[in-house]
User: Fold these one by one.
Assistant:
Number 1:
Amino acid sequence: MEEREGEVRWDGLCSRDAAARDAALETIGQAVLRRAESIAAGAAADGLPLPAARDRLGEALARLLMLSKRCPFPDVREKSEAILSRVQELGIRIPRPLGHGPSRFIPEKETIQVGKEDATMHTLFAESFATLGRLDNVTLVMVFHPQYLESFLKTQHYLLQMDGPLPLHYRHYIGIMAAARHQCSYLVNLHVNDFLHVGGDPKWLNGLENAPQKLQNLGELNKMLAHRPWLITKEHIEQLLKTEENSWSLAELIHAVVLLTHYHSLASFTFGCGISPEIDCEGGHTFRPPSVSNYCICDITNGYHGVDEIHASPAGIIPVSSTESVCEVEALMEKMKQLQECRDEEEASQEEMATRFEREKRESMFVCSSEDEESAATRDVSRHFEDTSYGYKDFSRHGMHVPTFRVQDYSWEDHGYSLVNRLYPDVGQLLDEKFHIAYNLTYNTMAMHKDVDTSMLRRAIWNYIHCMFGIRYDDYDYGEINQLLDRSFKVYIKTVVCTPEKTTKRMYDSFWRQFEHSEKVHVNLLLVEARMQAELLYALRAITRYMT
């Protein structure tokens, strides 16, 4: 990609070699200070008119602010802060972070602080920074579960940066298309920057109609995968593979499908955990000075509140006493024990199991939020996709019946895995590992209780999500779901999986009130992977039917 005149080069900071980072910081510091001195003197810089030079300096200062707070290498954090201080001494206003930590839902003091992580986490942070050039807020929340994070980062790195059927700029553009289906401006912003960094054409960012026809053709599949994957047929696949000069190869299509499902489900995680904007992105910093009370009226109108206010009880919710919450945990554990005893005593007939599935599938349609509360404000990203009115619809609304998808007939383990691995080598293996880690992850704890077997609860969450997508496991008793998942939890699960952009802090706070934040993040990992696998099953089954 051609560098803009006077462009600051940041790549050297990703090096694991301290001397290379030091040299890169020296060059960055000189370039930023030279620009700042020109602007302070009222002169143009880098051959740009003064307003454009100011904007360019602002971008560099926001990047330095992010590095001073979020870089895993202490030398980079300290030197970035020193450069910002020197710019401030020239009389130029420097930015400060908005918000408090990587999540709007989790108090910053309860997340892992950069610089205070243990050796295992530091390795993961350094790996993430070296790969992405940043330590993003998704990583800082996922690191509650290092084993999963390692698998997630490895998979995402392979999909975006390693050898594969699709060119790099296509991969990031597909990420933008997928995230935009859920109006996830957090992910859209990150991938717009990455798309430009790998040489993507800025004109494509003006709207999907400006992208190549081949990518436009993917719009329909993106739409169905995100909202109604059960409608995908082999005819949709045939249309993409046989459209003359704009056709996709099977390998390219598999790569695209995995990227689309990855970013649909990552949008669920982003909204489900209340991920804050990155410090150097729009909404992550401000150049306004703090007011006496540490936030000013313009912050409030833009939705940025003081730290105490953010983490106070949501309006209208009466704080629940710890005794009530403890009872909630005890009651859940008692139900798990009773269900285990019933399992040991008697087994329901196949007919009864099928009836229970149909009942749960039908009931899941009526689980919806009555919230009018505003979810996180996002800028309009609809130009990145078509048909903005197309969203999630339950199966049997308007008399439309969708047949149940039986895992016994088409499963990830027996069918999907080998198809992906055959057409996009190693990716089937990476996805399989990630699914297994999420499904089997346990610390044998529930809130304050230790040595608890949580497998029954984890299976109920996973199977409830698949049930919402019409996917049935013949050997599972769906009667367990109503016993283990209460209404507020079901509302949260359905919102995060089906309409993540509508998730609110109130929903996050109202389920499992006595559980740790790390346990709620664990729930989100199950939601992410179960959703991704459900979308993949429908797409891969259609591809298999096309091939046979």
Number 2:
Amino acid sequence: LSIAESSLPGSRFPLEGASDADIGANAQLSYTLSPSEYFGLDHQGSNDQTASLGLILTKALDRETIPVHRLVLTASDGGRPSLTGTMELVISVLDANDNPPKFNQTVYKVKVLEGSEVGTLIVTLSATDPDEGFNSDITYLFSRHASTNVKEMFTIDETKGEIRLQGKLDYEEMNSYEIPVEARDKGSPPLSGHCKVVLEVLDVNDNAPEVWVTSLSVPVPEDAAVGTVVALLSVSDRDSGANGRVRCWVWPASPFGVEARLAGSYSLVLREALDRERVSEYEVEVRAEDGGAPALLGRLGVRVPVSDVNDNAPAFLQAVYTVLARENNAAGAELARLWARDPDEASNGRVSYSVWEGGVGGGWRPASSYVSFEVRAVDAGEPPLCGNATVQLFVLDENDNAPALLPPAGSLPEAGGVAGEASLSSSSSVSESGSGTLWAWAAWGAPAGQVVAKIRAVDADSGYNAWLRYELWEPRGKGPFRVGLYSGEVSTARALDEADGPRQRLLIVVRDHGELARSATATLSVSLLEAAEAALAAAAGSLSSSSSRSALGVELGPGGASAATNVWLVVAICAVSSLFLLAVVLYGASRWAPRAAVLSGPGPTTLVCASEVGSWSYSQRHSRSLCVADGAGKSDLMVFSPNFPPPPPGPA
């Protein structure tokens, strides 16, 4: 028999009865069924062979429990002894779709790393259906309660029950998913079973820390105190756990640092004093690193300009400036150009200049009144700062003065009467006539090199411009006289004789060494006399007054000289003796008398000019006036000390 398991209890299934060849009581049949909780026997009518026999379902069948029932039906007759016949009933329970698919777990828990590749297998589901045939064929699908995110992120294989990844998991967007799944059979009507997949997304360190500025106070004054807050920063990391723990610092090393305030909040603070003149702007990079493995780094660049404070006074390149200015320059001509540097900016670095005389009682004075003056540079800051420099002004000489001839000296002559020679000193051998001509006497027979006169001249300029040279302009050629190039001494070029005549007229040019040299001329008339006459003329010149010297300078005639020879010889001898004594006295006085001027002393010198004949230098320490011959002192001719070491201290 085949009975559907969906048959209701009480259902009757007819059976074919037994037959007995006997008759009468021996043919009356009775039936019994082997014990069963599911089936019973229904025998209606008489016990003859025409009675109705059926199998009654007493309990609902369950094919999944007992798919086949085996019973024994026994028929007994009424004879004595009773005879029996048996029949086996094989009852096959036909399946009904009465069992929904069932998952082996109602909840599946799965952990998956974020960022896993598309197609990664998440989980394989398994559901069973005890039915058979189509009733046990199962299809897997997402329940209709599944969200759109689930359907977009995952796929499910209808046959195998495999759930795979079709999107990109991101822990920071969603850290878990609940996936409702349905298993449905193909029965009619189809039955379904359900389960839930709980997917936990595991964090991966795939997010670098983020840093941003919430407040910025710039520019920072360069005199800001240490600890000043420059900026407020916020730092976050979307990862979790160690991947989201962040530490911050400033790179590269700078006067700034980072201090933690609250969770995820930091301050950029000043840790060292600033100097805008050294660094006017900082490019600070705030770095944040998480605790993941490997660690990820976040960066934020912060530009911090430094504002200026008037903390620098103007400074000149030199403390002392030496300025050389030429004389006779025009009013308003530039003497020097000074520059002071102030490293501050804007008005703090804007410099103005003035000439300033400091000290008690000082005030504003015109620059023309200075030889050494102070220049002040003041900036425009608040409060203003100033710097000073000293300017030392040296006036350079221009060759604007021609040499000037000095009158003849009025000192006593020096004479010698040996071998008929007469020697006249440079201070007494020259006299001046009323016409401006200089007169001198020389004795015949004087040897070469005998000084007969000295031309004296001075130049108001200085340096090369005052350095004089003397040249014999007339007569040219090989005359009997010559002039010392730099001494101005007129001396004999050879021994004098009567052939040279009674008188020689010399034209002497005095020149300086300046560019576009200036000159002066002197005319010297030299009378040639006998030795005695020359001595007499010299003696007369020394004894006479200045008014009578010009008369003695007139050339003496040869007749008058012969008549008075004997008288004047005695006078000459006395004069020579007197001159000798006078010379001794003058020598002693000049030897032991205290010096009027110190011409040397220790101190640095600075070269002004130099040539093959010497050099001129000046010093800022010592200067003295030098007297030239018997003339007045020249205050503009300065002799400066060389660099000699100081002398050792002597007894007081």
